[in-house]
Design brief:
Number of helices: 10
Radius of gyration: 19 Å
CATH superfamily of the largest domain: GntR ligand-binding domain-like
Mean pLDDT: 88
Number of domains: 2
Shape: elongated
CATH topology of the largest domain: Four Helix Bundle (Hemerythrin (Met), subunit A)
Structural class: mainly alpha
Strand order of the largest sheet: 1-3-2
Low-confidence stretches: none
Largest sheet: 3 strands, antiparallel
Distance between the termini: 20 Å
Order of helices and strands: HEHHEEHHHHHHH
Helix content: 55-70%
Length: about 220
Amino acid sequence: MATKELLPLRSLSKSREVFERLRDAIWSGDLAPGTPIRESHLAKQLNVSQVPVREALLQLEHLGLVVRVPDRGTTVTKLTRTEILQMMEVRRHLEELAFQLAAPRITKEAETILRCHLTRMQDLVLKKDHFGVAEEDFGFHRTVWKASGNDVLEKTLERLCIAVYAFVSLKRHAAGETMKSAVRSHKLLLDALLSGDPECIRARVIEHLAPDAVIPSSIAE
């Protein structure tokens, strides 16, 4: 797959500079989903050693923007509609459990954090910052997962969801899709969580994670 050449960095530099260059290249589409990333090639292209490239790729993996597979290398995250549907089917059950467990455990501090995520999300929607909205969305859910008190559940959901958040936000950005419903959907989730009503929580989680609400039409099978 042909990709646009990246310009060399002006200084021998730090993983942060490499990270920002790669992140921007992925975000702009210069490094398209599914593109293989070779550390040695990037190091030569950016005029740095492989160490900051490796560190940058670890940061990108943490954000879900790349996938690193042992003995197979690193690629820019790419998921099919079928893969996302399967992930979301599992996530709905785990997410409902997390919200049900978290409901009686939500402190005033946790509620404040959740409302801060909503406020920032609303600001980022106005700026049409898809990736920023995705980060606040992820932060909102991580707060609930942590409040569940179940470490295994929290870590399982994080591993399951991070690549989906990144890939979907990239596709929405590329397609110029609107994000206006994101804030309202999370407000309804928060209301359900604070109500403590199991049936209300279940209904809102199912509605929030419905395929049509989560998967952009631009993602192929």
